[in-house]
């Protein structure tokens, strides 16, 4: 079940959208299931809602996008493989890349910045808080 808080964060994100047309189409359920099979993780309901309703919006950050073809530098499938090689734990879901660092959705629903050089320690209690802080507030 999708939390009210992520619905509100997505609506806020849509209000801040600059209206640029993105070549990235929102993933349908078939693509989500394909990606889940490829990465070996079940995508949480709140994350599914985010990528299906606002995953194409780019403000201060860009979500890794879900595509079945594996194309593009911001595609989640090859990005997760690279993140794992860099040391991101297997049960963390990289959702956004930032200069070699990854914002990851953790099994408990929180979001944490995984830093390749361990210079940063940032954590958000949930996906909605991260969306507002990172995309709307520009942090």
Task: Produce a short descriptive summary.
This protein has about 140 residues and is α+β, with helices and mostly antiparallel strands.
Architecture overview:
The protein has helices spanning 4-15, 29-39, 45-54, 76-86, 127-136, and strands at residues 93-98, 101-105, 111-114, 123-124. The protein has 139 residues and is an alpha+beta fold. The protein is globular and about 35 Å long.
Task: Name the features.
SMI1/KNR4-like, four-stranded antiparallel β-sheet, alpha+beta, 4 strands, single chain, 12% strand, 139 residues
Overall pLDDT: 87
- The CATH architecture comes to 3-Layer(aba) Sandwich
Distance between the termini: 28 Å
CATH names the topology as SMI1/KNR4-like
What structural class is derived from the secondary structure elements? alpha+beta
| Count of helical regions | 5
**Overall radius of gyration:** 14 Å
Indicate the CATH class: Alpha Beta
CATH superfamily membership, which one?
A: SMI1/KNR4-like
Number of strands: 4
Q: List SSEs in N-to-C order.
A: HHHHEEEEH
The percentage of residues in β strands lies in: 5-15%
Measured as a percent range, the helix fraction is: 25-40%
Identify low-pLDDT runs.
none
């Amino acid at each position: 079940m999708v939390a009210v808080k992520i619905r509100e964060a997505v609506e806020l994100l849509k209000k801040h959208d600059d209206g640029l047309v993105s070549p990235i189409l929102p993933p349908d359920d078939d693509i989500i299931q394909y990606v889940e099979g490829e990465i070996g993780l079940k995508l949480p309901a709140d994350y599914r809602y985010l990528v299906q309703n606002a995953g194409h919006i780019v403000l201060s950050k860009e979500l890794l996008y879900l595509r079945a073809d594996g194309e593009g530098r911001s595609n989640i499938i090859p990005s997760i493989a690279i993140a794992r090689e860099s040391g991101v734990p297997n049960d963390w879901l990289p959702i956004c890349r930032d200069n070699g660092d990854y914002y990851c959705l953790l099994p408990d629903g929180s979001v944490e910045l995984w830093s390749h050089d361990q210079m940063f320690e940032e954590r958000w209690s949930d996906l909605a808080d991260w969306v507002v802080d990172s995309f709307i507030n520009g942090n």
